[in-house]
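User: Sequence recovery, please. Input:
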């Protein structure tokens, strides 16, 4: 059980160097701006371990910086204890969500897994956050646009549902 009183969110993508560390930074700033820093614990992880210990991809950091996000997370893999330790586990696309649910040991753990696309409102053509790794600049800007939209809606929902 997680005895920490803070509401904890783990953002997950494939490599933990593009989408999920960006989501972590976007959500952390939103929480900070709303004066809720002490009420949340926000982290990110990857389903693959190719980049363990690395900083986020340079391109992701370059695109995040003008929007005021410094991405300093070091990549790590999702681990079994994450399913106990976190209140909510947010996958960036359907493959992430399927993989996460397959790793959950109980229905309760499975229910913690949601898809980021479910919180996108302003970009109705997107039901997931696409992997930008093999894309150009537009792919990284799109990731940030989608994450800013989705994090705002996710945070509002958590607050409305009195989870904090
Ligand atoms: P991410 O992007 O899942 O948003 O961090 C990727 C990063 C690395 C790889 C794939 C996706 N990779 O195959 O190394």
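Assistant: Recovered sequence (164 residues):
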């Amino acid at each position: 059980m997680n005895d920490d009183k803070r509401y904890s969110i783990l953002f997950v993508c494939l490599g933990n160097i593009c989408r999920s560390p960006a989501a972590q930074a976007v959500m952390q700033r939103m929480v900070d701006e709303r004066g809720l820093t002490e009420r949340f614990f926000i982290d990110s992880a990857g389903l693959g371990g190719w980049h363990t210990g690395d900083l986020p991809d340079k391109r992701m950091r370059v695109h995040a910086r003008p929007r005021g996000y410094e991405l300093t997370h070091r990549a790590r893999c999702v681990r079994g204890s994450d399913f106990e330790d976190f209140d909510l586990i947010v996958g960036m696309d359907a493959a992430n969500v399927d993989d996460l649910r397959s790793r959950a040991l109980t229905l309760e753990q499975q229910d913690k897994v949601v898809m980021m696309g479910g919180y996108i409102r302003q970009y109705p053509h997107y039901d997931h956050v696409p992997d930008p790794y093999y894309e150009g600049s537009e792919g990284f800007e799109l990731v940030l646009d989608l994450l800013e939209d989705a994090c705002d809606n996710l945070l509002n929902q958590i607050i409305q549902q009195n989870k904090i």
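Residues 13-19, 50, 131, 133 surround 4-nitrophenyl phosphate (CB under 6 Å).
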